[in-house]
């Protein structure tokens, strides 16, 4: 991970986001990010000026759109330190994980093998592995958390055996904001011969990611959390692994030759991209990556770190507030107000034009571990600033007065 210059000037890019009106504190970026003007413009051009199918047409506009589509694949590869032929476009991280579970785990693992997850995983990084494990007779183990709510890598080291064939972990927790030492986790897994999938949904928009340096075998993320469109995401995988995997779906584009006697399949990544793709979504994702890179991930992380630090300090001063996650959480602050359901907290905050997430955050096993039914979660983006933190704190103080 690149070093972070925490003395960088705060970002001032709110004007780039037309869907955020004056006085509205949008603090739900971990669920989905707002979209900057360059992304909106790229999408509008894609549908309104340059639209055509890709990979099939022989006319010029189709050829041009195909070049743009593949340029986006190369841009994604550069963004995460991979190769274009290792980048598979999917609907989102959920589909990427399901693809690996179905096409790798369910075909390469056997009865008695073990899959290792952690206690803080999103349901999307739990349920697909359960489905694969049930199909093949594999078993799932769960790494506990440290006292400050990080994945306990010392415990992981003690748990791993040569029967573990796959490890799937979140780079950044969507609830706690805790950051995984991916390199160490990968080294531990590889010592016993296990492959590693990393859920990077909460990482790619705020931390520099280089899959070659991290050493993982698969990496997934969704475009809509990266200031891009919904319905588009990325599965990166080592080419040798992708090449050994069967297709996820059958249809157009993923074939080499089709006869009624036999069908042969295209090499990766085309093998996993059946049907007409989300063409303009890919174009929008390219624009989103350009936007984020234009600001600089180190600057983004420093900006969000400052907001997290300010928020945690302010909330820690309210006696009835319980904070979750480590002090250095990345862009996310989860909390509970004693005696108040998080849904009520969020409703009262909304009355003051502060938008947060409240619920189990698709992490019910983690809620059970934390011994709460749900949490309130404020999550930051490039468009947030100290005024949003102040509005959040005022809202929480109002909650305590109402329920005090």
Secondary structure tally: strands: 15
Assign an overall shape: globular
Q: What summary fits the major beta sheet?
A: 7 strands, mixed
- Which value, in Å, is the CA radius of gyration? 22 Å
Give helix % range.
25-40%
Report mean pLDDT, rounded to a whole number: 96
SSE sequence, one letter per element: EHHEHEHEHEHEHEEHEEHHEEHEEHEH
Percent in strands:
15-25%
- Would you tell me the structural class of the helices and strands? alpha/beta
| Sequence stretches where pLDDT stays below 50 over 5 or more residues | 1-7
The strands making up the biggest β-sheet line up spatially as 2-8-7-6-5-3-4
Query: In angstroms, what separates the terminal alpha carbons?
Result: 44 Å
Number of helices: 13
Characteristics of this structure?
404 residues, alpha/beta, seven-stranded mixed β-sheet, four-stranded antiparallel β-sheet, 15 strands, 16% strand, globular, disordered N terminus
Topology:
Elements: E1 25-26, H1 37-48, H2 60-80, E2 87-90, H3 93-108, E3 114-118, H4 127-136, E4 139-143, H5 153-159, E5 164-170, H6 182-191, E6 195-199, H7 211-214, E7 218-222, E8 233-237, H8 239-243, E9 255-258, E10 263-265, H9 279-295, H10 297-316, E11 321-324, E12 332-337, H11 342-351, E13 354-355, E14 357-359, H12 364-370, E15 375-379, H13 386-403
Parallel strand pairs: 1-13, 3-4, 3-5, 5-6, 6-7
Antiparallel strand pairs: 2-8, 7-8, 9-10, 11-12, 12-15, 14-15
Helix pairs in contact: 1-9, 2-9, 3-4, 10-13, 11-13
């Amino acid at each position: 991970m690149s070093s972070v210059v925490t003395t960088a000037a705060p970002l001032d890019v709110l004007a780039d986001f037309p869907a955020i009106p004056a006085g509205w504190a949008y603090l739900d970026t971990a669920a989905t990010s707002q979209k900057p003007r360059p992304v909106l413009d790229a999408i509008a051009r894609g549908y309104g000026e340059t639209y055509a199918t890709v990979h099939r047409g022989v006319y010029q506009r189709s050829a041009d759109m195909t070049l743009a589509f593949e340029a986006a694949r190369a841009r994604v590869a550069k963004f995460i330190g991979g190769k274009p032929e290792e980048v598979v476009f999917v609907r989102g991280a959920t589909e990427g994980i399901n693809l690996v579970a179905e096409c790798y785990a369910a075909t390469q693992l056997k009865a008695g093998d073990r899959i290792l997850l952690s206690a803080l995983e999103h349901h999307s990084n739990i349920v697909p592995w359960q489905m694969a494990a049930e199909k093949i007779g594999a078993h799932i183990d769960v790494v506990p958390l440290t006292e400050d709510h990080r994945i306990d890598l010392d415990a992981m080291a003690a748990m791993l055996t040569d029967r573990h064939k796959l490890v799937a972990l979140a780079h950044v927790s969507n609830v706690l904001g805790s950051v995984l030492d991916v390199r160490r986790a990968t080294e531990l897994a590889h010592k016993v011969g296990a492959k590693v999938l990393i859920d990077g949904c909460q990482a790619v928009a705020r931390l520099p990611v280089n899959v070659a340096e991290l050493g993982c075998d698969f990496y997934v993320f969704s475009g809509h959390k990266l200031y891009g469109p919904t319905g588009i995401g990325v599965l990166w995988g080592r080419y040798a692994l992708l090449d050994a995997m069967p297709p996820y779906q059958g249809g157009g584009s993923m074939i080499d030759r089709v006869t009624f006697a036999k069908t042969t399949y295209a090499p990766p990544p085309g093998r996993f991209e059946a049907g007409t793709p989300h063409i303009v979504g890919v174009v929008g994702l390219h624009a989103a990556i350009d936007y984020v890179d234009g600001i600089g991930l180190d600057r983004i992380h420093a900006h969000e770190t400052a907001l997290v630090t300010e928020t945690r300090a302010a909330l820690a001063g309210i006696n009835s507030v319980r904070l979750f996650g480590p002090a250095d959480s990345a862009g996310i602050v989860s909390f509970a107000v004693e005696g108040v359901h998080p849904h009520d907290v969020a409703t009262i905050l909304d009355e003051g034009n502060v938008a947060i997430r409240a619920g189990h955050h698709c992490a019910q096993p983690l809620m059970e571990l934390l011994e709460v039914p749900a949490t309130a979660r404020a999550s930051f983006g490039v468009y947030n600033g100290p005024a949003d933190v102040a509005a959040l704190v005022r809202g929480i103080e109002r909650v305590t007065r109402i329920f005090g």
